[in-house]
Amino acid sequence: MAQHFLSRFPAMGDPRPPMVIFAGQSHPAIAEDIAGHVGVKLGDILVHNLTSTETEVKLQESIRGKEVYIIQSGSKKVNNDVFEMLTMVYACKTSSARKIVAVIPYLPYSKQCRMRRRACITSKLIAKMMCNAGINHLITMDLHQREIHGFFDCSVDNLRSSPFLLQYILDNITNYRECVMVAKNPSSTRRVSSYAERLRVNFAVIHGELKEEREIDGRTSPPPTPLIGGNSGILPVVTPATFACSFPTPIPPYQQKIKPSLSLVGSVKDKIAILLDDIIDDVEPWCLLAGFLKEQGALKVYAMATHGILSGNALQIINSSPSLDQVIITNTVPLSDGLALCPKIHVVDVSKMFAEAIRRIHNGESMSALFTNITQD
Predict the structure, then answer these.
(1) Whole-angstrom distance, CA of residue 327 vs CA of residue 324
(2) d(CA 27, CA 334)
(3) How far apart are CA 124 and CA 134, in angstroms?
(4) Contact 55/47 with Cβ under 8 angstroms?
(5) What is the DSSP string of 177-198?
(6) Which residue from 376, 186, 360, 355 is spatially nearest to 266, judged by alpha carbons?
(7) What SS3 class is residue 363?
(8) Which of 373, 369, 377, 315 is nearest to 345 (CA)?
(9) Which of 150, 192, 354, 369 is in the most buried spot, having the most CB atoms within 10 Å?
(10) How far is residue 67's CA from residue 64's CA, in Å, rounded to a whole number?
(11) In this structure, are strands 345-348 and 272-280 parallel, antiparallel, or unpaired?
(12) What is the mean pLDDT of residues 126-131?
């Protein structure tokens, strides 16, 4: 029988500080599971919203000199979850915790990690806020982009859900050798090919899109002509120094990028197609792609992802879709009662991975064993 890791602690003279695990309000179920696997009870903390909707955090026990783990995942109340996490971290920091480790199974705003048009990189703002609040270490799972590591000024352990999802395929799909892993778009090819190589199956890539919507954002407008008197609009300034600048410099125009209609690189004929990505948010595109794969000859279509946000009327869309046979997600994001009871949705428990990460960090052990046979992509 495996010896519980707490029993391996030295009885006296242990240099490691005591451990305490706190849970926020976003996902209490996974917090209970993680604490149960670690073998400790959740710490006594009061987190609630006042009548003014302000978040109040009160620690009900002393954490001076202790190593604190705060479990708080993203949910559909994402802004409340983020500020609740910041408040809990700051409360532990001001209460003289020796080390604060944030355990965030699904990191909110992780999809906003690149500059797009005139938007901002919000995930960097979230990272800076967390570090300034006082976290010393972050444990999360399947970040949307690995570059998010660089946004944090603390150490980050980005765990992988692939061992659990692959095991689900092996245990629940009897003829898994007849599966084809399918990438929703070319940018997901690396993730999909990694799964396919470990299952010893083929993979395919969907290229193109169902519809093209061009958004006009004013980038093609010419530079404004300087006017006399500022913005009064009396007369344009025409001087030798500004005459040449009043006309735009001719440059070669950018060629408009037009994606072709949907096409499939690879074959799914008479196969079980497994659409793979890291996040399922709006399920309607997944159902449309499932229909496209059925038209290409797929026998069944499964949707698989780590984080099942499933926003909007996801339950009605999944139940009414004749093409999407199953949705396989992990329990990093809490599901509503209706989604949890949906026969098409299957949830894979990954709490053991977080518990093992906590155990190794607290014992000062290497984390490399959790990334065995996992590629950097």
Answers:
(1) 8
(2) 6
(3) 16
(4) yes
(5) GGEEEEESSGGGHHHHHHHHHH
(6) 186
(7) helix
(8) 315
(9) 354
(10) 9
(11) unpaired
(12) 96
Task: Tokens for 241, please give them.
Answer: 């120094």
Q: How many Å apart are CA 167 and CA 357, to the nearest integer?
A: 19
Distance of alpha carbon 58 from alpha carbon 64, whole angstroms? 14
Q: Per the structure block, which two tokens stand in for 106?
A: 């699904």
Is the four-CA dihedral 367, 371, 373, 376 of positive or negative sign? negative
Residue 261: pLDDT band by 50, 70, 90 thresholds?
Answer: confident
d(Cα 41, Cα 69) in Å, to the nearest integer? 12
Q: What pLDDT was estimated at residue 376?
A: 45
Q: Residue 173 in 3-state DSSP?
A: coil
Q: Looking at this protein, which amino acid is placed at residue 214?
A: R
Find tokens 């399922």 and name the residue: 280
| pLDDT tens-digit readout, 62-83 | 999 999 999 999 998 999 999 9
CB atoms within 10 A of CB 136: 18
- The structure tokens listed for 375 are 């590629």
User: DSSP alpha helices (H): ranges in 41-188?
Assistant: 78-94, 122-133, 162-172
